[in-house]
Amino acid sequence: MLYEIDKIKGINLELTTNCNAMCSACIRWKDGGLNPVVEKNLGSKGHISLEVLNNIYCDELAQSKVFKRFELNGTVGDAINSPYLVDFVKMVRDKSKKFGKVHGPEIDLHTNGALHSTQWWQDFAHLMIDNNPNSQVIFALDGTDNETHQQYRKGCD
Fold this sequence. Notes:
The protein is an alpha/beta fold.
């Protein structure tokens, strides 16, 4: 075995290759266009399925005493673009409780935050806290106003 479950403390997970931003410094862009590696994995092909996510947070990992954290910090995608984000957090919460844990692992989500309604974010915040009160959402806000923000996070308001 290449790894031992009981030694894994955290996992950095990219739920999707999809992103709603067009940040010029991002690896998504190459030679003035979309990186061909990213382009072939857009749309539904770019999402990790809930079945695979369930295998990642397997029963052995859910029972681990050392596993503490998922970090959703995409290299080319933003997790809020995944149709499975909410279901993933629910799955982590429910599986952790199934094995007698009061809280699931922390989930730290890094995002541009430029999708979804205020109500969606409120509901998501409650879900994150229900899973683990130490979970957090880190919003990437660049610039002092929306005009300067657009220079870095193009397409995001």
